[in-house]
Amino acid sequence: GARLIVASQEIVADGTQLLATLTDSKTTVMQATPATWKLLIAADWQGNEQLKVLCGGEALPSQLASELLERCESLWNMYGPTETTIWSAVSEIKTDSQLISIGNGIANTQLYILDQSSQLVPVGVVGELCIGGMGLARGYFERPELNKEKFIYNPFSEEESRIYRTGDLARYLPNGEIE
Predict the structure, then answer these.
(1) Counting Cβ atoms within 10 Å, is residue 105 exposed (0-12), middle (13-18) or buried (19+)?
(2) pTM for this structure?
(3) Distance between CA 179 and CA 73 in Å, rounded?
(4) Residue 81: which of 13, 165, 176 has the closest Cα?
(5) Sheet with strand 104-105: strands edge to edge
(6) 3-class secondary structure for 93-142?
(7) What is the Cα Rg of the chain in Å?
(8) 10-residue block means of pLDDT along the chain (179 residues)?
């Protein structure tokens, strides 16, 4: 029963137009990058206590998270590259925190943080985030060398599968979530 609104590039690039579209449409869920949320706040967006905010595509700064939490019903930090069907991890941000987690993998997704020897790192140690699971792309079209570099054998699965090397640095937090 919902309605989907895809804002044009012109609207998205102008905070005032985007604010008007958001208000006029009575939107209840909006997905945007941190840069777009900053644009809305700069356009004097006061918030909507019924709005679910989905934020992804870039790292979510803690200052922005604080500002969004004051203006919405709920805030969700979304993470995932295109090579893993966009969203691979999600975390609801509930309180003001200096550490913004990406949470854990969504259903049918595995997240691994590996050192330079492709071994799992312990809690608190930074390594490269790698992603496996049902959402993993087959690879890059006609790019065999890049596929070999980025889509590697998954040594942590009993089934023959691959994981994607994101190039993003991450670490396990003591609660099991990933920053």
Answers:
(1) buried
(2) 0.91
(3) 23
(4) 165
(5) 29-32, 48-55, 72-79, 89-93, 104-105
(6) ECCCCCCCCCEEECCCEEEEEECCCCCECCCCCCEEEEEEECCCCCCCCC
(7) 18
(8) 91 96 95 96 96 95 95 96 93 84 95 96 98 96 97 93 97 94
Per the structure block, which two tokens stand in for 29? 């869920």
Which residue type, as a one-letter code, is found at position 86?
Answer: I
Residue indicated by tokens 């699971």: 133
Which DSSP state fits 23? H
Q: Measured in whole angstroms, how far is the alpha carbon of residue 108 from the centre of its chain?
A: 16
Q: How many angstroms separate the Cα of 83 from the Cα of each of 6, 144, 166?
A: 22, 15, 9
- The number of beta carbons lying within 10 Å of the beta carbon of residue 15 is 18
